[in-house]
Amino acid sequence: MPHIELPRALEDYFAFAETEPTRNGRRFSITLPYMDGQRLDRLQWWYHITPAQEQMYEGTGLVIHRSRAIERFCRHIERWLDITSQRFHGTEPIPRLGSRRVEPTSATISATAEPELPTLLEPVEKVVNG
User: Fold this and answer.
1) Are the C-beta atoms of residues 56 and 64 closer than 8 Å to each other?
2) Are 87 and 81 in contact (CB under 8 A)?
């Protein structure tokens, strides 16, 4: 089962922001809001670009570094969903977080269907404490 079951690409749900630039460069954030039950939560990814990096790639350094940050953030989200056995789903403007349903396979069904073992202990009728 996929980790992301949304009608649009995951990047379409991102919000982008920039902090006040400094002489050391610019800081950007990518935010993914999501609903966890009735609670609104978010995942956030921060990245920094120096003035030299901004001038790289013939002046398109911002665009290149932003696309790399988006790719890394998407991989991070997919890995987080995989590790926590969760998924993003829904058709609302904000994705919903839910647990992944594990579909049983024939191997797991046969492994869980163990034959009943005979009872070796007799039932206890009365327990005395003290």
Assistant:
1) yes
2) yes
Higher pLDDT, 97 or 130: 97
Strand pairing report for 26-36 and 15-18: antiparallel
Q: How far apart are CA 2 and CA 78, in angstroms?
A: 9
What digits encode the pLDDT tens for the residues 58-113?
878 899 999 999 999 999 999 999 999 999 999 999 999 999 876 555 555 555 55
What pTM value is reported for the model?
A: 0.73
- Determine whether 58 is exposed, middle or buried from the number of CB atoms within 10 Å of its CB (0-12, 13-18, 19+): exposed
Q: b/e for 61-92, b at 16 or more Cβ within 10 A?
A: bbeebbeebbeebbeebeeebeeeebbbbeee
